[in-house]
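Inverse folding, one chain.
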């Protein structure tokens, strides 16, 4: 799921900190705006906009963090609105609901662990590429 790669150059301390912070931004946003899934995406997007003209290492990791938040937004939004409909529209808690919520929980847990791992490795100057988002980021970010 996660691959360690090397860049052609060793990023400086300032670059490593900004790249690592792009992942930490989404974790902080989870804590601050837990019930609303859009908060993570907005926080990561604002950080991305502030660093989109930075060095390649920083832009690359800001983009990968932002792309990961898009899929989380989709999954968590469905879970959020489905949960609201269960509580306020008096809908039945079905097996589909339980299965979806379990899947979303596991997906969020893996993404949370991968984000922490990536933030730590990126802070050390290592280039971490996620399975799905890495190749997509490579297409989007030009060197």
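Residues assigned per position:
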């Amino acid at each position: 799921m996660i691959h360690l790669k090397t860049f052609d150059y060793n990023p400086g301390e300032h670059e490593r900190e900004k790249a690592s912070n792009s992942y930490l931004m989404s974790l902080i946003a989870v804590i601050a705006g837990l019930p609303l899934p859009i908060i993570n995406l907005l926080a990561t997007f604002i950080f991305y906009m502030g660093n989109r003209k930075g060095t390649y290492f920083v832009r690359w990791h800001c983009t990968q963090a932002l792309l990961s938040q898009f899929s989380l937004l989709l999954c968590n939004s469905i879970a959020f609105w489905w949960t609201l409909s269960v509580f306020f529209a008096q809908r039945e808690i079905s097996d589909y609901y339980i299965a979806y919520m379990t899947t979303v929980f596991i997906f969020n847990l893996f993404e949370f662990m991968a984000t922490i791992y990536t933030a730590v490795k990126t802070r050390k100057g290592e280039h971490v590429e996620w399975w799905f988002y890495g190749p997509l980021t490579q297409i989007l970010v030009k060197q």
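The mean pLDDT is 87. The CA atoms of residues 5 and 127 lie 5 Å apart.
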